[in-house]
Design goal:
Layout: E1 4-12, H1 16-25, E2 29-35, E3 41-49
Antiparallel strand pairs: 1-3, 2-3
């Protein structure tokens, strides 16, 4: 059975692609983005399979 690890990260609206590409390069899959505390920020939830 697969085991997962999770992370959350702030995402600035003006740099969304760059931030998501960086996380993707490290093997993280985007699960969801939700609004942050102000309109310029979002919060991203990521997951990736744990190394065995």
């Amino acid at each position: 059975m697969a085991k997962w690890e999770y992370a959350t990260a702030p995402v600035l609206v003006h740099a969304t692609k760059q931030i998501l590409d960086n996380w993707g390069e490290d093997g993280w899959e985007l699960v969801q983005i939700v609004p942050g505390m102000n309109p310029e920020n979002l919060v991203a939830y990521f997951k990736r399979q744990k190394a065995e």
